[in-house]
């Protein structure tokens, strides 16, 4: 089973790029973030024509999350985190797909930091940590996939970068991510590829994509049961080079299930 996460950065305007990737790679489960579309505008029919059923939570102009299942219907268990600080923002959806519980998240960016947006990021992170701990305690097979807006270590972005002070790198953000790992979650991409660049995001300005100045902010954290089934992981960098591409590339894991 291949499970992927992809910040699509507007599912309507980038539908051609999304469908090209789905058609080429045919992942079994996909978590999408930044739909930037109202609930009714989600392109369900176009995805269904490719064999994907979907569950989603839209939001006009911003945010929005979805879970796709190839030949499988996601059975929704949550459309918001317990204790989420602002439930008007569509940042979390959870569903059972193919015997795996999938949590799809779009963690707040938090910039500028310090400030109210960074405070909101940390508050959202606390709610997520609490829910992740309850999922871990359940013993269920779980994958928490999405745009975490956290660069976990200096090895997860290009050298001599210009992101000092950015909310994605701040000690508080990295400490919260480490607290997730300390609960028992496995960072699946790093488990398979302990060293080397695994960029999933290249910002549009300053020619970051052509010069390969990327960051790893899209992660798939897996519960112990899934970690034992992990056979491969990677990033579909080619999707970032498509016409009209998102500034993210899809990241994925393969599990023997």
Write a structural description:
- This protein is of the alpha+beta class and 257 residues long.
- The chain has one domain: Deoxyribonuclease I, Chain A (4-Layer Sandwich).
- The protein has a six-stranded mixed sheet with strand order 3-4-2-1-12-11. The chain has a six-stranded mixed sheet with strand order 5-6-7-8-10-9.
- Strand 1, helix 1 and strand 2 form a beta-alpha-beta unit.
- The model has no long low-confidence stretch (mean pLDDT 97).
Q: Topology of this protein?
A:
Blueprint: E1 2-7, H1 15-25, E2 29-33, H2 44-48, E3 52-57, E4 65-70, E5 75-78, E6 92-97, E7 100-106, H3 116-138, E8 142-147, H4 171-182, E9 186-187, H5 188-192, E10 218-222, H6 224-227, E11 230-235, E12 251-255
Parallel strand pairs: 1-2, 7-8
Antiparallel strand pairs: 1-12, 2-4, 3-4, 5-6, 6-7, 8-10, 9-10, 11-12
Helix pairs in contact: 3-4
Key attributes of the depicted protein:
257 residues; Deoxyribonuclease I, Chain A; six-stranded mixed sheet; 12 strands; 25% strand; globular; metal-binding
First-residue to last-residue Cα separation: 6 Å
User: If helices are DSSP runs of H or I spanning 4 or more residues, what is the number of helices?
Assistant: 6
* CATH H-level superfamily title: Endonuclease/exonuclease/phosphatase
Write the element-wise H/E pattern from the N-terminal end onward.
Answer: EHEHEEEEEHEHEHEHEE
CATH architecture: 4-Layer Sandwich
Helical fraction equals 10-25%
Largest sheet: 6 strands, mixed
CATH class: Alpha Beta
Number of domains: 1
InterPro entries: AP_endonuc_1, AP_endonuclease_F1_BS, Endo/exonu/phosph_ase_sf, Endo/exonuclease/phosphatase, ExoIII-like
Keywords: Hydrolase, Magnesium, Metal-binding
Cofactor: Mg(2+)
Family: Belongs to the DNA repair enzymes AP/ExoA family.
């Amino acid at each position: 089973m291949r499970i992927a996460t992809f910040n699509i950065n507007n599912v309507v305007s980038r539908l051609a790029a999304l469908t090209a990737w789905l058609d080429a790679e045919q992942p079994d489960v996909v978590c999408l973030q930044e739909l930037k579309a109202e609930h009714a505008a989600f392109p369900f029919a176009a995805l269904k024509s490719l064999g994907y059923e979907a569950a989603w939570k839209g939001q006009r102009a911003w945010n929005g999350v979805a879970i796709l299942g190839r030949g499988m219907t996601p059975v929704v268990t949550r459309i918001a985190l317990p204790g989420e600080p602002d439930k008007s923002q569509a940042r979390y959806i959870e569903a059972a797909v193919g015997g795996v519980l999938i949590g799809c998240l779009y963690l707040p960016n938090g910039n500028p930091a310090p400030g109210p947006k960074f405070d909101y990021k940390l508050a959202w992170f606390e709610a997520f940590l609490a829910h992740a701990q309850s999922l871990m305690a359940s013993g269920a097979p779980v994958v928490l996939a999405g745009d975490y807006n956290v660069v976990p270590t200096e090895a997860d972005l290009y050298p001599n970068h210009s992101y000092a002070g950015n909310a994605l790198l701040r000690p508080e953000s990295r400490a919260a991510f480490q607290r997730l790992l300390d609960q028992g979650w496995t960072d699946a991409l790093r488990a398979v590829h302990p060293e080397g660049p695994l960029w999933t995001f290249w910002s549009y300005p300053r020619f970051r994509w052509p010069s390969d100045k990327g960051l790893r902010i899209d992660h798939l954290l897996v519960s112990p049961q899934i970690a034992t089934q992990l056979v491969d992981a990677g990033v579909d960098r080619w999707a970032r080079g498509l016409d009209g591409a998102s500034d993210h590339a899809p990241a994925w894991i393969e599990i023997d299930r």
